[in-house]
Amino acid sequence: MSLLYENYPRSTTILIALSIILFSGFLVTRVTKRLHLPNVSGFILAGMLIGPHAIGLIPEPLVDKMGFVSDIALAFIAFNVGKFFRKKTLKRTGCSVFLVTLLESLLAGLLVFAAMYFLFHLSAAFSLLLGAIATATAPASTMMTISQYRAKGPFVDTLLQVVALDDVVCLLAFSVTAAIVNGQEGGFSAADLVLPLVWNVLAIGLGFLCGFLLSRLLRPATRSQDNRLILAVAMLLGLSGVCALFDISPLLSCMVFGAAYMNLTRDKALFRQLSGFTPPVMSMFFIISGMNLDVRLLGTVGLIGICYFFIRILGKYGGAWLGAKLSHMDGNIRNYLGLALIPQAGVAIGLAFLGDRMLPPAIGDLLLTIILSSSVLYELIGPACAKLSLTLSGAITPEAIERHKAGKQPADNTRYKRQ
């Protein structure tokens, strides 16, 4: 198949590859829908099937050039998450969301560290870094499941705030553990630790500035629906590009972008517009994630990888339950929130590559393999667990499930009203 791509111009091969990616996602989700699985699971399975490690419809060199899709998808996801950080919502939840986030993140990290260091007798450096990475949660599949079933209510508000704050805790935890590791190992400059934090702070400031500018540019009385969409997408792509330039995740800055715009304008219509624009981007993001998994790597991680996979889930669920219990949250939030915190992808993979640089080659490769392989497995079961938690908590109504089975779209997704 790679020879076929080599015989045609690059633009032609890219267009054909994108067409195959979208068609494969559509076809596989026809099967997963019959199994009552969320679309995200179907997209990842489609990527695994057509990727270079299975059928090979898309060659590996071409997959390697599609990393920009991840940045774009994360930018849209984070912007959409930002709308849930409204002043009135934050006042209602108070410090409870911060407590839940701290406990679910740090308990997962501490349990993974303890298992690697005391059970498998691995080095402190490896155990610390893997534990820090375990704190991360990927919002993409959870967000897509919420959008797919039009879930709403207090459970969804709490979940989205926890998922959004999770990456802040992860970045801080990784920075602290990396500083400890470098203090023991040496040979890694302080700038490698400080600069990413500086860039993230600046990117957050830039995200707020974008929210302020967009709130002034998109005055409802002066902009058409087309121009509103054009300006919003242009600013999201620009912000994502700046983050990529400095090798940082666009999650935090784009989340602040969305939060600032929502609090300054209370304009929900723009978010609905973007939701109608993003399905092909989200589809490609998850399919490309599936294409990056080499199933042969699963055999190399062995018992260590299996242990990491299950202990992180235990930590996430236990920490969320304990945090909700201490915060006197509703029983549905306490019992089911942890199920929706299983996915792990973008931020964790990026930190794994950084951790690989800080460890000896053999142990660094083990760290990277564990994160890459487990991330795809988390993304496979994560959407199903998210759907289960949303259903059990009452955030997904029986009518929404029946509508999904019948392939019908909600009425409010067909027209964007100006608010």
In short:
By secondary structure, this protein is mainly α.
Helix and strand element order: HHHHHHHHHHHHHHHHHHHH
Structure classification: mainly alpha
Question: What is the residue-mean pLDDT, rounded to a whole number?
Answer: 80
Estimate percent helicity. Answer: over 70%
Taken as a percent bin, the fraction of beta residues is under 5%
**How many strand elements?**
0
* Alpha-carbon distance between the two ends: 50 Å
Helix count equals: 20
> How would you characterize the largest beta sheet?
none
Uncertain residue ranges: 410-419
Shape: globular
Quaternary class: single chain
Radius of gyration: 21 Å
Description:
The chain has helices at residues 2-6, 10-34, 39-50, 60-64, 67-82, 87-93, 96-119, 124-134, 139-149, 154-185, 191-217, 225-245, 251-265, 269-277, 279-291, 298-326, 331-336, 346-358, 361-392, 398-405. The protein has 419 residues and is mainly alpha-helical. Helix 5 (67-82) packs across helix 12. It is globular, with a radius of gyration of 21 Å.
Question: Helices, strands, pairings?
Answer:
Layout: H1 2-6, H2 10-34, H3 39-50, H4 60-64, H5 67-82, H6 87-93, H7 96-119, H8 124-134, H9 139-149, H10 154-185, H11 191-217, H12 225-245, H13 251-265, H14 269-277, H15 279-291, H16 298-326, H17 331-336, H18 346-358, H19 361-392, H20 398-405
Which key phrases capture this entry?
single chain, 419 residues, mainly alpha, globular
